[in-house]
Amino acid sequence: MTINGARQMKVAGILILAVVLTACSNSNRSRGTNDYSVVTRAASGPISRACLSSDRKSRNSQLCGCIQAAADRTLSKSDQNLAASFYGNPQKAQDIRQSNRTGDEIFWQKYKNYSETAEAICQIR
Questions:
Q1: With helix as H, strand as E and coil as C, how does 65-110 read?
Q2: Helix (H, G, I), strand (E, B), or coil: what is residue 62?
Q3: Whole-prediction pTM value?
Q4: Which of 17, 26, 53, 111 is the most buried (most CB within 10 A)?
Q5: In which element (H, E) is residue 60 found?
Q6: So what's the pLDDT on residue 42?
Q7: In Å, how far are 2, 6, 83, 118 from 72, measured between CA atoms?
Q8: Do 82 and 95 contact (CB within 8 A), yes or no?
Q9: Residue 89: is its pLDDT beyond 90?
């Protein structure tokens, strides 16, 4: 891989990680209705718990539940536990993203799919 290609992958990975990790910090913008509220009232799991226990001041159960619903659609339970650990240790996400291990590369592809799904169904911007 070229230096520019590696740099582009790093930037893309950081942006994806930023979307997911800052999801709980997005303010509840006035939209009339929360599109994610219907999908997520009962969504509970490791990512939802990590989101709710984070120090992000604008976290709320609907958004964290929506993010969990996206995880339920795209990640296995063990992948969800790993992704939830990123809330407390963002460096772990960087280490996995930059790893050359096949398992880490496979996980990172699933994680990217998860973050894109969360962005789409939870309308995270």
A1: HHHHHHHHHHCCHHHHHHHHHCCCCHHHHHHHHHCCCHHHHHHHHH
A2: helix
A3: 0.67
A4: 111
A5: none
A6: 57
A7: 35, 30, 12, 10
A8: no
A9: yes
